[in-house]
């Protein structure tokens, strides 16, 4: 009961301070709201870029063409084993010369059907899937050095450029989130510090009658959490309803079916929850820093 009474007192006092400094709090809540909305947008983009990147890398493979004289099973198994032992190789799939011809017919047209049977001029091959597609060029060069391998192909510079671009976007997104979090901390920190400065005389009286640092600082921490939580409400609603509208208008994909979007429920839970949690944690941590710094200086 004592803990509940203390919490209710801290909550009441936090609301009272917010009311006294309503314009300052409104300014902080608005600024935090904009910042959290930007964080939400970056998170949505980051989730999709990560999904697209993983999807692209999952489907990327090196097409390994064997020499024409590699026909016996033992030789092909030996090459398979050597490729599988490479550090970046995840999986190796065999493709017979007949399967290679069918793939060519599918890609280049029915004119190549004439080569079915004994007239098939193609060689056996492997499709090699990688653990890290950003090193596809290096792995392709390693495979090409293996005895019995005639050539390798993986799509050239366009493939590596796409993977590198997606990885770069991910890094930029993480950097933006970090900067926005720091900005949010700074905004709430300044708001709480201003509130504390306006109550110096009251805090000195509380110290005189024996109030602990925790008793003095807790209402400020609660105030910071409330500012962060209130600042997260509008960004959450925009993400909740705005993303669903965007998903519907785009038909659940960006440009092509290859770039499928996350379902609205997934974004609502992951990004929406992250926005609220970020608001609470940023608000609580920033106000804790401000209160502790003041109490340490005035000790």
From TrEMBL:
Location of the ABC3 transporter permease C-terminal domain: 176-297
GO biological process, one term: cell division
Transmembrane in keyword set: yes
One Pfam family cited in the UniProt record for this chain: FtsX_ECD
Transmembrane segments: 21-47, 172-192, 213-238, 267-291
Segments forming a coiled coil: none
GO cellular component: plasma membrane
Membrane topology, from the record: Multi-pass membrane protein
Subcellular localization: Cell membrane
Keyword vocabulary terms for this entry: Cell cycle, Cell division, Cell membrane, Membrane, Transmembrane, Transmembrane helix
Domain FtsX extracellular: 61-150
Keyword field contains Transmembrane: yes
Function: Part of the ABC transporter FtsEX involved in asymmetric cellular division facilitating the initiation of sporulation.
Database matches in PANTHER family: CELL DIVISION PROTEIN FTSX (PTHR47755:SF1)
Family: Belongs to the ABC-4 integral membrane protein family. FtsX subfamily.
NCBIfam families referenced in this protein's UniProt entry, alphabetically: FtsX_Gpos
Name used for this protein in its record: Cell division protein FtsX
């Amino acid at each position: 009961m004592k803990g509940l009474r203390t919490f209710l007192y801290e909550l009441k006092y936090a609301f009272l301070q917010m009311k006294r400094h309503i314009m300052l709090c409104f300014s902080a809540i608005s600024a935090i709201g904009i910042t959290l909305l930007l964080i939400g947008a970056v998170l949505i983009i980051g989730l999709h870029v990560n999904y697209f990147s993983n999807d692209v890398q999952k489907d990327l493979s090196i097409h390994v063409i064997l020499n024409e004289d590699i026909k016996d099973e033992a030789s092909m198994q030996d090459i398979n084993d050597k490729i599988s032992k490479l550090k970046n190789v995840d999986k190796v799939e065999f493709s017979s010369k007949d399967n290679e011809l069918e793939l060519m017919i599918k890609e280049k047209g029915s004119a190549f059907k004439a080569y079915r049977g004994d007239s098939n001029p193609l060689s056996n091959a492997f499709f090699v899937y990688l653990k890290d597609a950003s090193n596809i060029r290096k792995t392709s060069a390693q495979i090409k050095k293996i005895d019995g391998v005639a050539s390798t192909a993986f799509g050239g510079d366009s493939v590596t450029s796409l993977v590198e671009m997606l990885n770069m976007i991910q890094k930029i997104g993480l950097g933006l989130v970090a900067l926005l979090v720091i900005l949010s901390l700074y905004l709430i920190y300044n708001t709480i510090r201003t509130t504390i400065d306006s109550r110096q005389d009251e805090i000195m009286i509380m110290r005189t009658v024996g109030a602990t640092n925790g008793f003095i600082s807790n209402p400020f921490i609660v105030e910071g959490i409330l500012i962060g939580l209130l600042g997260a409400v509008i960004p959450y609603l925009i993400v909740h309803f705005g993303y669903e509208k965007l998903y519907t208008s785009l038909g659940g994909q960006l440009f092509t079916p290859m770039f499928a979007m996350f379902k609205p429920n997934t974004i609502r839970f992951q990004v929406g929850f992250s926005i609220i949690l970020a608001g609470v944690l940023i608000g609580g941590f920033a106000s804790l820093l401000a209160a502790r710094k003041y109490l340490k200086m005035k000790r």
